[in-house]
Design brief:
The structure is a single chain. About 85% of the residues lie in helices and about 0% in strands. The chain has about 220 residues and is mainly α. It starts with 6 loop residues before the first helix and ends with a helix.
């Protein structure tokens, strides 16, 4: 079909890949839990656009360029790790504020409302997606295994494979978004749970940053 081979195997692989936790899905879940369904889908849109750009770059051969140029790969890698670290520090600072007294927390939350409104989840999710050279390399290494080398229009094959991957991503992120709104209700009732979960998210983002910085 359109130069795509072994489609069932590809779909099974996509399902496993999408379900693996990563900074994109964790950020979407965090936004949905803090700001609701609409903001969650705004962040998800950033992920979709970022993934589309990476798929396009992979099809265009940019992944091969990163593989061949160690300096360029290092620049992208450390820039992405630095951005994930910055997000992690922000989450940990928010968690620290949650552990303070109720009166202090109320004043800080009131003062932080304009900053939260300026968070721009779409842009943050897009940057998290784009500064991930491992994702670019993965897309090209994974996609090419399911493209018929004898097909006259390989670009169309990449489009079909990318469409299936995006559908799986939409379904998974939608589940996270609606699950996040339920988590938000629990967080509002239990401040300690909210602070613990935010701290854990920050630690995970630091882990993602370290893992990316060690990528080769």
């Amino acid at each position: 079909m359109f130069g795509v081979v072994h489609l069932p195997t590809y779909l099974a692989g996509v399902a496993l890949i999408v379900l693996l936790p990563g900074p994109n899905s964790l950020y979407v879940l965090s936004v949905a839990a803090r700001r609701g369904v609409r903001a969650g889908y705004t962040a998800a849109a950033g992920v979709f656009c970022g993934d589309t750009v990476l798929m396009t770059l992979s099809a265009a051969g940019v992944a091969s360029l990163l593989q061949a140029n160690a300096v360029l790969f290092g620049i992208v890698k450390y820039a992405g790790a630095g951005y994930l670290t910055w997000l992690a520090i922000g989450m940990m600072r928010a968690a620290r504020q949650m552990w303070r007294t109720r009166r202090e927390r109320q004043r800080e939350e009131t003062a932080a409302e304009p900053a939260a409104a300026e968070e721009r989840p779409y842009r943050r999710a897009l940057v998290v997606s784009l500064f991930n050279p491992k994702a670019i390399l993965f897309f090209v290494a994974f996609f090419v295994q399911f493209v018929d080398p004898g097909y006259a229009y390989p670009a169309l094959s990449f489009v079909v494979l990318g469409a299936f991957a995006q559908v799986a991503s939409v379904l998974y992120l939608s589940a996270l978004i609606f699950g996040g709104t339920r988590l938000a209700a629990a967080f509002r009732r239990r401040r300690r749970l909210s602070a613990t979960a935010t701290s854990a998210a920050g630690v995970l983002f630091l882990g993602f940053a370290v893992k990316l910085s060690l990528a080769s």
